């Protein structure tokens, strides 16, 4: 796992968390365009990012909650 990017390490750490409940992670790639969405349905946190690589999509996530 030494060849993982920082974004990939963060993703693995997130999905290994034992306290996650009602959590959704969506990763999609269409050629060179990536989209990442993470939703914590308990806290209503909703993050979304996109970019030309997984790392850019992951790092570029912003909170999508209204208000």
Low-confidence stretches: none
In whole angstroms, the N-to-C terminal distance is 39 Å
Order of helices and strands: HEEEHE
> Compute the gyration radius: what is it?
12 Å
**Mean pLDDT score, rounded?**
89
Helix percentage range: 25-40%
Proportion of strand residues: 35-45%
Record the strand order, biggest sheet. 1-2-3-4
Count of DSSP helices? 2
Structural class: alpha+beta
Compute the number of structural domains. Answer: 1
Q: Biggest sheet, open or closed, and with what strands and sense?
A: 4 strands, antiparallel
- Extended strand count: 4
Shape: globular
Break the fold down into its secondary structure elements and pairings.
Blueprint: H1 6-16, E1 23-30, E2 33-40, E3 45-51, H2 54-59, E4 62-63
Antiparallel strand pairs: 1-2, 2-3, 3-4
């Amino acid at each position: 796992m030494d060849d993982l990017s920082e974004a990939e390490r963060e993703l693995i750490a997130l999905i290994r968390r034992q306290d996650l409940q009602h959590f959704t992670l969506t990763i999609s790639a269409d050629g060179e365009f990536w989209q990442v969405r993470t939703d914590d349905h308990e806290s209503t946190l909703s993050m979304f990012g996109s970019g030309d690589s997984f790392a850019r999509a992951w790092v570029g996530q912003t909170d999508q909650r209204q208000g």
